[in-house]
Amino acid sequence: MELKTTHRWDLDEQEAIELQHQLALQVMKEDALEPVRYVAGVDVAYSEQNDKLIAAVAILEADSLTLVDTVMVEESVSFPYIPGLFSFRELPPIMKAFEQISILPQLIVCDGQGLAHPRRFGLACHLGVLYDIPTIGCGKTKLSGSYVEPDIQRGSYSPLMDQHEIIGNVLRTQDGVNPVFVSIGHRISLATACEWILKLSPTFRLPETTRQADQIVRKGLKLTQ
């Protein structure tokens, strides 16, 4: 997959924050999707024994949710643990994984945040801008903002607010289970992002893209121990 935007990765904390502010201006918050035949999920897991991390990309057929391609990459951690700057830690190995995929996706779902980020530039935004591809942030937990708990039925949602701005939706993907935190990554509207997360979550709380990528990184971690 071809990068459309590039930058240095050997940055200190302040340089990384400044770059986030700059690149956030490139995020497109409206739908600019091609017909989606394949959708990718990405995930990263860290070893507790050493400085290794595992990044994975899982490609699913959008209609059937059949897994059609997977890539796993093992790397050493190259950026410190700093809240709000996870993309600088996780994107380099994710990018290496994308270099090896055989099927190009038209949409990427990230296990993390997009606009629902203090500087409106979470991992999903960063990845989307780099490849200029539609991306969605779908986090298990909240990073920024406040919300009222949505109704218990699947498909119910409430806005995730930060300083009178809607930065995402808190979406119930299954009846009575904890919601997920959906936000724009790039080239997609919030409404369409939520529609896709529901489509990708027919049975479980998390979208199949995330579940499949998570299974791959878990298997990879076992091999590193």
Describe this structure in words.
Belongs to the endonuclease V family. It catalyses: Endonucleolytic cleavage at apurinic or apyrimidinic sites to products with a 5'-phosphate. Its EC number is 3.1.21.7. Pfam families: Endonuclease_5. One of its GO terms (cellular component) is cytoplasm. This protein has an 8-stranded mixed β-sheet with strand order 3-2-1-4-5-8-7-6, sandwiched between helices. By secondary structure, the protein is α+β, with helices and mostly antiparallel strands. Helix 3 (123-131) links the parallel strand 4 (107-110) and strand 5. It contains 5 helices and 8 strands, in the order αβββαβαββββαα. The two termini are 30 Å apart. The longest helix is centred in the last third of the chain and has 17 residues, at 208-224. The chain has one domain: archaeoglobus fulgidus dsm 4304 fold (2-Layer Sandwich).
How would you summarize the topology of this molecule?
Elements: H1 13-24, E1 38-46, E2 52-61, E3 67-76, H2 86-98, E4 107-110, H3 123-131, E5 135-139, E6 157-162, E7 165-171, E8 180-186, H4 190-199, H5 208-224
Parallel strand pairs: 1-4, 4-5
Antiparallel strand pairs: 1-2, 2-3, 5-8, 6-7, 7-8
Helix pairs in contact: 2-3
